[in-house]
Amino acid sequence: xxxxxxxxxxxxxxxxxxxxxxxxxxxxxxxxxxxxxxxxxxxxxxxxxxxxxxxxxxxxxxxxxxxxxxxxxxxxxxxxxxxxxxxxxxxxxxxxxxxxxxxxxxxxxxxxxxxxxxxxxxxxxxxxxxxxxxxxxxxxxxxxxxxxxxxxxxxxxxxxxxxxxxxxxxxxxxxxxxxxxxxxxxxxxxxxxxxxxxxxxxxxxxxxxxxxxxxxxxxxx
Length: 221
Fold this sequence. Notes:
221 residues, mainly alpha, Vanadium-containing Chloroperoxidase, domain 1, 0% strand
């Protein structure tokens, strides 16, 4: 796939995401948040309170670091193979860079837009925007947890395709948890998902020019 084709697809996906975000903000976000707020004390809400912690970036950065360490030990043990190790290192760096850049971007957008989180709706009945006027903890758009889990699992799905269904299942559950526990509106989650996809797909193009993830799969086989 050429860079021009990739950019066109990302642009089209961005337009669809923008339309979906507008629809969600206008008609769906508030009623959906209020609906789930009525079930905060249920067992399944508690279940999603636990599930949501899997979006912690520290977990996935640790996975990448462990991957680098395992690659180093494997190639050092068998035979010094600097080229093979370099390819695996590059694959794990792809994951780290995609997560870090998309996370930084999300935080910047959060502060710039300043959309109130659902908890302010539950407490004060407000649903406003305060550009550059809220603390980061009070800014909800886009969802950082959604960006974190999708950037990590999408990157891993390129590195280990056989586990793709598992990675995506985890990402879907964690993303849904942000709405169910009242941490984010649906539009926040949709935007966080797009940022993650944009970053991972674009960075994969640059890192994959050397056949990185394909070589990683061959080396791990």
